[in-house]
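Long-time lurker. I teach an intro course on protein structure, and each term I like to show students one example going from raw sequence to a predicted 3D structure in token notation. This year I'd like something fresh instead of my usual example. Would anyone be willing to generate the tokens for the chain below so I can use it in lecture? Attribution to the forum is fine with me.
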Amino acid sequence: MKKYLVALTAFTIITIAATAQTKNSSTDNTSQQTHTQMHHKPGYGMHQFHHHGMMMNQLNLTDAQKQQVKDLNTDYKNQLSGLEKDDNITLKDYRSKKASIEQERKSKFQALLTTDQKNKIIQAKKDRSEKMKMMAQKRMEKMKTDLNLTDDQVAKMQAQRESSMEQMKAIRENSSLSEEQRKAQLMDLRKSNHDSMNNILTADQLKKKEELRNNRMTEWKNKRANKDS
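-- Reply from a regular --
Happy to contribute to a lecture. Here you go:
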């Protein structure tokens, strides 16, 4: 348990350092701090940072709300610190208590928002969901052309994707999971989904897919090299 907490503490220090750098480079320190502390979770990509940053900016938090968020974050940090200092706690209890602390912070954050701000979050999530569906459809159409997929293959891939999205949603909405557990389950799901998709393809299609991937990587490296030169 101590080794786990030492590793977790090291990760936390790295995260805090990264957060501080992001905050210092922002033109609105308070808004950026609110965004980073309330929404930065392990495993988030840059597009997810961008999405949540825009969402927080759209909420137009008042100074009083920003102070409340700051207090929530301070309390959250103190509770986690106390939890990590408990040498007698088991890993199972640690994860359970951490999940409860995270859920409490989430509930308190929701409680300090106005009805209009809550509606903005709901609408932003709907808009993002629709955008993701459109992007997925475009990727599927391109893949169908590039790999010469049959209609049956496309149908199987779409069914697999929809199933994966439902499972992903269930994992993200499972409040009993800690962030570490949620991240691990999402990674396993993505790998399983990737393997299932590949099983639908023929050997020639898999070869073509790998060639296209290598070409994209080469193009990306060339662009980086030209940019840095």
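Some talking points for your students: Residues 65 and 112 are 7 Å apart (CA to CA). Residues 1-50 have pLDDT under 50 and may be disordered.
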